[in-house]
């Protein structure tokens, strides 16, 4: 029996079973239950502009997957930053019940606990695949839930923008001295590193960055990478594009849910939301490298963007500062210490594996291909 015949036969068999059962009492009871199940509607706020590539569309994907997998019994409506609450107000909106869910970057909540940084990115931290491994299999999710529940929220990975670029600069950065007095949009612990270098870190949501760069409020900005940076047009204001970035080697984005709302969901709806978040996370890991490569070609060949790298001197100093900045965070409270210890153990494991796998492979690939 070939595959087509088998599938056709299976379909007929399933239809026959359904027809036979339709005359039975069990089916007569079950059918009305399916038809009359109350639709659960949830409102999601985000920290992104509406339908912004990769970020805003990731939030939309979560909603679409939830709606589709639940066959309409779970409806998620997405609101961009500013439509219900401002970008940096999303966490409080969900914690207090003004909204049910958020899609964001957890380091935006570092004012509540510095431990949130570890669930987005820390300077010289883990790459996208490494942080994904830690959260899923290394105890990260359990610590994240413990942290979030203390504020009335539970969160999951729900996209990752991959390795981020170092940023857009109006002037070249040739030495450590060039960081002094530099006003740069850079959130999270990366901002702490910049301050130690003598610069001024400014926290701005995505929609606020370009006007600030245009009017001179800031001298430089990081955002994500070529795909998202091209969408905002930063190249018009800052011609020097530095990479790679030290501050966000793999930026995990999150789906946060009010803890009471989560606990009140049926188990199948909880499973659907988890699956939707994972599916969105996985698709973004494929989407970002593809779109970044295409956008980089446009930036360089159509807009004459000048690519630059930080000096070895700068990297060494950034490395020293980064380790101290991240270590200092661990002293905030016992839970943050546990998150830090778990994260660092996972980073060590990841480094050992990468040392004998990806790193030498990339080196040899470049040597063999000659580019």
TrEMBL record:
Gene3D superfamilies: Bacterial extracellular solute-binding protein, family 7, Periplasmic binding protein-like II. The keyword DNA-binding does not apply. Keywords: Signal. The keyword ATP-binding does not apply. This is TRAP transporter substrate-binding protein.
């Amino acid at each position: 029996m070939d595959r087509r015949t088998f599938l056709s036969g299976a379909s007929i068999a399933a239809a026959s079973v359904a027809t036979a059962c339709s005359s039975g009492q069990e089916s007569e009871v079950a059918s009305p239950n399916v038809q009359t199940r109350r639709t659960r509607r949830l409102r999601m706020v985000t920290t992104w502009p509406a339908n912004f590539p990769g970020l805003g569309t990731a939030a939309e994907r979560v909603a679409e997957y939830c709606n589709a997998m639940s066959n309409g019994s779970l409806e998620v409506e997405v609101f961009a930053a500013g439509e219900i609450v401002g970008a940096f107000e999303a966490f409080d909106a969900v914690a207090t019940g003004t909204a049910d869910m958020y899609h964001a970057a957890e380091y935006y909540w570092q004012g509540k606990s510095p431990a949130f940084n570890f669930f987005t990115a820390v300077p010289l931290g883990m790459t996208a695949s490494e942080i994904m491994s830690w959260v899923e299999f290394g105890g990260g999710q359990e610590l994240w839930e413990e942290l979030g529940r203390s504020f009335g929220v539970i969160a999951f990975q729900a996209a990752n923008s991959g390795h981020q670029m170092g940023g857009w600069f109006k002037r070249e950065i040739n030495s450590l001295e060039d960081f002094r007095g530099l006003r740069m949009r850079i959130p999270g612990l990366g901002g702490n590193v910049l301050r130690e270098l003598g610069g001024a870190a400014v926290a701005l949501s995505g929609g606020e960055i370009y006007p600030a760069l245009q009017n001179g409020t800031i001298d430089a900005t990081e955002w994500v990478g070529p795909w998202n940076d091209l969408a905002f047009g930063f190249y018009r204001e800052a011609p020097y594009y530095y990479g790679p970035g030290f501050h966000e080697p793999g930026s995990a984005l999150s789906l946060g849910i009010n803890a009471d709302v989560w606990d009140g969901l049926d188990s199948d709806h909880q499973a659907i939301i988890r699956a939707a978040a994972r599916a969105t996370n996985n698709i973004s890991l494929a989407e970002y490298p593809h779109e970044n490569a295409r956008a980089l070609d446009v930036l360089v060949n159509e807009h004459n963007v000048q690519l630059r790298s930080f000096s070895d001197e700068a990297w060494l100093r950034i490395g020293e500062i980064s380790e101290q900045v991240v270590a200092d965070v661990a002293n905030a409270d016992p839970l943050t210490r546990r998150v830090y210890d778990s994260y660092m153990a996972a980073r060590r494991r990841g480094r050992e594996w990468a040392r004998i796998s990806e790193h030498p492979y990339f080196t040899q690939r470049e040597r063999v291909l000659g580019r």
